[in-house]
């Protein structure tokens, strides 16, 4: 049995508490101390150059005694060197384990009473084996590159005392400070040696794996970059340990997708490259998310995925009829279009363009086409779109960049052959951010769109399978290049009778269903529907009609839930009770026949409308004043009207002085609504003649027509809308250009029967009909 050496200790010694280190016996080590701490070591001279080094516990306390561990090390101060920057370096040598007995004094320096902890180690087969194993293990560690000071290595060869060996080696094993303190507190040398042995074994194992990995990786990648090497190592280690982190799983998943994405070869290569890049990016960096989102788009695009078209045209016709009333010509044209598409696998254009006032069913026709073909339906509104990037996307170099709407929607649809409706092509804008119309051209042009390249996606995507349909209220603002590629199908407004039928067959059943009234058989009388159409809406389409019907259904639903007896029949009175006082009146009936006020017919984006052109005069120098938000063309036609009247004043019995001593003012009320176009020429001429000749104008006579300087009446557009508006407003007689006679064919019979039409070639014929 060997007992540790007994140290000749003074009765008390100075204490130096340690924070992040543990001192071991036999260890020679430097300690850097502050100026305040120097006195402890200077005082040591009085105590045989000895100090007690005890590590403080982790949990902070104010009391010194409570903060200290019980076991520490008594050390000899070998050297004390003051440093010029302040503080000092002390070289200490660990002598033996000590146990803290008592704190004798705390200030100015702490003095403690300690006793040496005696260790007894019995030399045995076990201790011998442990010592030689530890020796061998240390050499292995050394061979794997674990650094050990030379002199330590030499000493180890000679030490056969297990306690000493364990204390010496403990310092060179990577252990947390807490573990080291525990090791210090392990008094039994054999036990301590075992612990050190275990720790060293774990470390050697780690080194071993690392070494193997390193060798394998080096073989694989040769002399590639350092960063890459380290990542490979990490990957290998993870595999070795059976761990695969989320990121690996993610990348694996992306690779799987890549193999089944059905991309064209060049896109596949780009995706592959991006995937490799992703593997190298730190997942915590923002760049990772950017790359990840990009890959999501690349892999998620429906490169090959498409729905199978229903090629049965009869079935398509059934669907169209199911969803929409009448629209015979439109449906016919759509079916022809579908037939050609069915026969020809890849049909190059044209793009359908539905033009008409709001609420006439342009969007819902698009939806029906999709339903008839069994394709997905996408709708994007181009209204107010000014930025080209909304169509073509932003380059990925921009923060928060995304693809344009076309690619986004196709990605979302997950099919490369949806019916894609682009609403409001007439409202597309142009500004400094580019010209969305030209970007749209790339999308729609069958000559280009097989390789549409979105700025974000940066690879071409074939849009030839997409069926594009555009809609517009008016065609004029659509850029000619776009117009050129479109096949225009015009939808005009509905007559009251048509609206009534649409309400009965489509809108009412739909709203009953939507508002949960299927169990309560609600019925609208014909008179009630007409009342809603005439007194609560003034529109070419049926959107407000649908809204009013929905409003009544909601009110009925509310009453039912309030346990009131359900209303079964909606009469005109009940409609009024639900919808409140009527909103529109018969405009013409509300007017009087006047001098200088003539009823005209106008055509706006929202359909036809009637206007009252007013002319008045006041003393002046023959100026023409125009008000009422008139556009340039309309202003010019007012000047032409005045010139015509002045040039023909003799025939019209008008005093020529009217044109030199008076100012003429023409106003078209509803000033907030912009008006333009030449078709009010006839109305303005008639209003001036009425004013200057003092003849009253019949308010029930409405007119439309462009005039030339010689008084010829020229053809106009939008006739159907205008005639429907005339009828809505209570007009009895419509004066229109002879050249528009053929267009009367499009006017439903019942409307034609109700109105009287006068076709004129010369404006003077209109005076006879309209003026008293
Ligand atoms: N002929 C019709 N038969 C049945 N329902 C119709 C008909 N025309 C329009 N509708 C209905 O009227 C509503 C409005 O139509 P929709 O939204 O398609 O109008 P729109 O012409 O696209 O208008 P906007 O130009 O404002 O987009 C829809 O609920 C639609 O089903």
UniProtKB/TrEMBL annotation:
The gene is lon. Keywords: ATP-binding, Cytoplasm, Hydrolase, Nucleotide-binding, Protease, Serine protease, Stress response. This is Lon protease. InterPro entries: AAA+_ATPase, ATPase_AAA_core, Lon_bac, Lon_bac/euk-typ, Lon_lid, Lon_proteolytic, Lon_Prtase, Lon_prtase_N. It comes from the Bacteria. It is found in: Cytoplasm. One of its GO terms (biological process) is cellular response to heat. Residues 592-772 form the Lon proteolytic domain. Pfam families: AAA (PF00004), Lon_C (PF05362), Lon_lid (PF22667), LON_substr_bdg (PF02190). Belongs to the peptidase S16 family. One of its GO terms (cellular component) is cytoplasm. Its EC number is 3.4.21.53. Homohexamer. Organized in a ring with a central cavity. It catalyses: Hydrolysis of proteins in presence of ATP.
